[in-house]
Design goal:
This protein is α+β, with helices and mostly antiparallel strands. It has one domain (about 5-80): Orthogonal Bundle (Arc Repressor Mutant, subunit A). It has five helices and three strands; from the N terminus they run H-H-E-H-H-E-E-H. It has helices spanning about 5-10, 10-20, 30-35, 40-50, 75-90; strands at about 25, 55-60, 65-70.
Length: about 100
């Protein structure tokens, strides 16, 4: 049976990846409020995705205000697509292992 990528399959990280797949980039506050996460929770999950190479984190300033933004990497897009493909394979097999 197809193995699912644990870094993608975790529900909060999957939501982050799905949201980032639809935009060029998103800042910390947008992700936090859209996903309803605490600051610490969002930071922990995005750090894990960055370590896996799925998300790029950019820190900078808007004027004098610190700003952190996130974008999906090509690897992240590829792994998300592979995740959906794996789910489709599992779904279409009817839950029975291939013979």
């Amino acid at each position: 049976m197809t193995e699912l990528d644990a870094d993608v399959h975790q529900p909060t990280r999957l939501r982050i990846l799905m949201l980032l797949s639809g935009v060029d980039s998103a800042d910390f506050n947008f992700l936090r409020t859209t996903l309803g996460l605490s600051k610490g929770n969002l930071s922990a999950h995005t750090s894990r995705l960055e370590e896996a190479g799925y998300v790029e984190i950019t820190k900078g300033f808007n004027g004098k205000i610190p700003n952190t933004s996130y974008c999906l990497t090509e690897l992240g897009r590829s792994r998300l697509a592979a995740y959906w493909q794996a789910l489709e394979e599992i779904r279409s097999s009817g839950g029975t292992p291939p013979s």
